[in-house]
Amino acid sequence: MRTHPFVPIVAVLAFFAFVASSFAESGLTGAPILQKCMGARAIGMGSAFVAVPDPSNAFSYNPAAIGAGSGLKPDAVSRHTLATTYEKGLADDKFGFLQYTKGMPWGGVGAGILYYNSGKINLNLTSGAGGSVTAQEDTVVMLGMALKPVPGLFLGGTYKYVRLNLAEEFHATSHQADAGALWRITSVLSVGAAMQNMGGNIKFESAGDPPPTTTRIGAACHLSSFDIRKIDSSVDIIDTDITFTADWVKIKSEKESPRVGFELAMKPSYMGTVSLRVGYLFNRDIKSMTYGCGFKHKKFVFDFGIEASKNLSNPLHISFTFHL
Q1: Which one of 9, 200, 245, 253 is at 20 to 30 Å from 19 when CA atoms are compared?
Q2: Which burial class, exposed, middle or buried, applies to 163 when counting CB atoms under 10 A from its CB (0-12, 13-18, 19+)?
Q3: Model-level pTM?
């Protein structure tokens, strides 16, 4: 008896939805760095990115994308991808991220490192001692792999080694794991799901907090090679791509956050591809609107993203990607 092609992905989505409900009990979570999503392209699209087959954002959204190529087009696969992201936070804090992925006929492998530094603080103890120390310094080392059991379907996983440092005095380590699935149904439509930060409690001493287990389920629609000159023949644009994304995200101990994203990529005849992006995160009181832009020339990609914060400075994200 032949199995309907939609059965595998429906089963995967049902599994992630069930697991999400299991992790939905109230309580605080530890290691905020594990909630951090890097990649300026995805940030500009509201972090609705679990179904986009982009290996340069795989460690932040869906490890299955490690083997899914660099776009929704089957011929857009990049065998080697090196990506780096820098974010300037709300105060003196900053994030840095570096990753490498290698696509293979059976899937792909990758490695990455995420770093956070909150800046210096001055300590004035009652004993009279004082000095300047780094308030918080965290590192996450990641190893990932994705498999392609059938054409268009990718299954991936990530191992994370987490090391946290507070005031240069208190330390904690943890081991976490991510799992994900991504199905490129057609060259236009893909769906994906991921469960992130599945592991033990984050402990500095005897007590501990659970990790911020996160569930992502979403879809992406990519309209490629749209000829805008059919609408306006005077426009000097030889290629136009449009991408719509929509995700449902649930972080442990937080309310659900549906989110949507949009990207318009245009290639003029005289330069590389220019992209404009916008996104929105529902149920977010502080950072709900996002914007971004990008420029691609041959194998080099530059992306910029901004999270619009109410009454706060806006975090800026800058990414550089090389498709080798």
Answers
A1: 245
A2: middle
A3: 0.83
pLDDT greater than 90 at residue 195: yes
- The answer regarding whether domain 7-124+131-323 maps to CATH 2.40.160.40 reads yes
Positive or negative: CA dihedral 248, 40, 197, 172: negative
Q: pLDDT band for position 238 (50/70/90)?
A: confident
In order of 30, 47, 262, 294, the CA distances from 314 in angstroms are: 24, 16, 20, 18
Q: E strand or H helix at 10, and its extent? A: helix 7-22
- Give phi and psi for 164, each to the nearest 5: -120, 140
Give the C-alpha distances (Å, rounded to integers) separating 230 from 106, 233, 236, 238.
40, 6, 12, 11
Residues 295, 320 contacting (CB under 8 angstroms): no
